[in-house]
Backbone:
């Protein structure tokens, strides 16, 4: 594929020639980010309207599952047919899913329609990052990553707030209907202003590989998400789901070795840089899930703060992230991507170690400051390692590489949620539990186990960064993408 960028397209801001595309990407990212959290505060209203209290956790699980398992497939399709059609299909699926969720008549229907939303999100998230990799130079990309990271930061605060406002003052259905104008604006911006010339070549779609990978990942992530929840870890159902997923994953590897145009080229998984960056991404996902799941719980049930204050304590994490992500470009152009990521991972280790100092006498300011430090480290680690992975391959493989990175983050989140939940349940046991309440002392011990696990993951992240090869000169510039002038 070739891209021609005129001098007028130089510049990163919204007023540049590429500005409308950037706005479309940010809106698309906001859709995925907000809908991952907006439903949390609306659950009581949804259950009161539709019933099905026992099934409501699936509103989160099915969305994450559908998103995660389709990311690798969308990445390959983008390398074959181009980013634009895959992105527009993703936005379209998300729009349809949102409308259906808004008119859902039962909890079962709402869960099914959340899966449709997840299928759209599985295309939107990796395509946003892939288009950024195509459209902006290495020097510009870190600044754009700051824009994208800021979307996640704002969404982490706006999402739960919107869910509460709509549920209390209008109707929970509007948390889905509000997506309609956002989807349309994002689709128009990308559809009208983003142009790419794809070298059409005859390809043989790896249907067997795509289907086997999707089913295998579905079973594995389902087993991790529901293990210890819907069934016991050692139960026949739990073992059967995980074993079947592992067997199908082995079958997928065998299929890919013989496929003329595999959905996931296995040679990419032998690239030391790509393996290291995928491991970093998995650790990022697991650490994020550990913090977002248990920092608010610690702030509310141990420190006695309200939900709003607890949310702001966690928001400090996502405020530090875009600050460091936007600065990381200047840093890695001076000292290299690997060195920048090492600094970031070391800061995450420091912040995670500070979590271990928290106890019942800590202040919520201390919790927020610690989260802010971890966010700063994440920005210096996640953005540069993704940029390194994208810069290591040509256009024809950038979609697969970006999709792989996003998948490992989702998989890390799924594993993190399962492991941390099991750790907390094992630590609590029956002690300190009174009805539906947990004694603060017992909860402090349990959450400290999570914080210890977060520290171990931060050290693993640092080790994964050390696996990256040393920078040898400047990374190759991305191929260009044609952008409409107006």
Residues:
């Amino acid at each position: 594929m070739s891209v021609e960028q005129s001098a007028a397209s130089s510049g990163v801001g919204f007023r540049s020639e590429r500005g409308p595309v950037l706005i479309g990407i940010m809106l698309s990212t906001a859709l995925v980010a907000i809908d991952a959290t907006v439903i949390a505060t609306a659950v009581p209203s949804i259950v009161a309207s539709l019933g099905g209290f026992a099934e409501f956790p699936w509103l989160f699980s099915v969305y994450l599952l559908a998103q995660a398992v389709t990311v690798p497939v969308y990445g390959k399709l983008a390398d074959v047919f181009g980013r634009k059609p895959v992105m527009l299909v993703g936005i379209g699926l998300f729009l349809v899913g949102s409308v259906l969720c808004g008119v859902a008549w039962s909890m079962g229907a709402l869960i099914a329609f959340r899966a449709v939303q997840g299928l759209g999100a599985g295309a939107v998230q990796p395509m946003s990052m892939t288009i950024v990799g195509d459209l902006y130079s290495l020097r510009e990309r870190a600044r754009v990553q700051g824009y994208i990271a800021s979307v996640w930061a704002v969404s982490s605060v706006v999402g739960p707030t919107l869910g509460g406002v709509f549920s209390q003052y209008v109707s929970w259905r509007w948390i889905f209907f509000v997506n309609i104008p956002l989807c349309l604006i994002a689709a128009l911006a990308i559809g009208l202003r983003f142009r790419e010339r794809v070298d059409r070549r005859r390809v043989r779609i790896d249907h067997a590989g795509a289907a086997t990978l999707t089913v295998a990942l579905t079973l594995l992530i389902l087993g991790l998400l529901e293990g210890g929840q819907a069934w016991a870890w050692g139960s026949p159902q739990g073992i059967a789901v995980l074993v079947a997923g592992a067997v199908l994953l082995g079958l997928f590897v065998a299929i890919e070795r013989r496929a003329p145009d595999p959905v996931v080229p296995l040679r990419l998984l032998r690239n030391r840089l790509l393996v290291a960056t995928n491991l970093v991404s998995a650790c990022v996902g697991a650490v994020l899930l550990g913090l977002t799941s248990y920092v608010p719980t610690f702030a509310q049930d141990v420190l006695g703060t309200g939900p709003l204050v607890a949310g702001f304590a966690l928001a400090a994490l996502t405020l530090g992230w875009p600050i460091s992500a936007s600065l990381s470009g200047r840093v890695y152009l001076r000292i290299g991507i690997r060195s920048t990521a090492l600094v970031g991972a070391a800061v995450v280790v420091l912040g995670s170690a500070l979590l271990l100092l928290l106890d019942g006498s800590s202040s919520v300011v201390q919790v927020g400051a610690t989260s802010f430090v971890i966010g700063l480290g994440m920005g210096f680690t996640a953005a540069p390692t993704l940029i390194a992975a994208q810069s290591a391959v040509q256009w024809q493989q950038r979609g697969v590489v970006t999709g792989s990175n996003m998948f490992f983050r989702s998989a890390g989140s799924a594993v993190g949620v399962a492991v941390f939940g099991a750790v907390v349940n094992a630590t609590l046991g029956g002690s300190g539990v009174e009805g539906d309440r947990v004694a603060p002392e017992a909860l402090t011990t349990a959450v400290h186990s999570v914080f210890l696990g977060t520290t171990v993951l931060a050290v693993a992240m640092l080790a994964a960064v050390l696996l990256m090869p040393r920078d040898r000169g400047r990374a190759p510039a991305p191929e260009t993408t044609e952008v409409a002038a107006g």
Observations:
- The two ends are 22 Å apart (CA to CA).
- Residues 1-9, 473-486 have pLDDT under 50 and may be disordered.
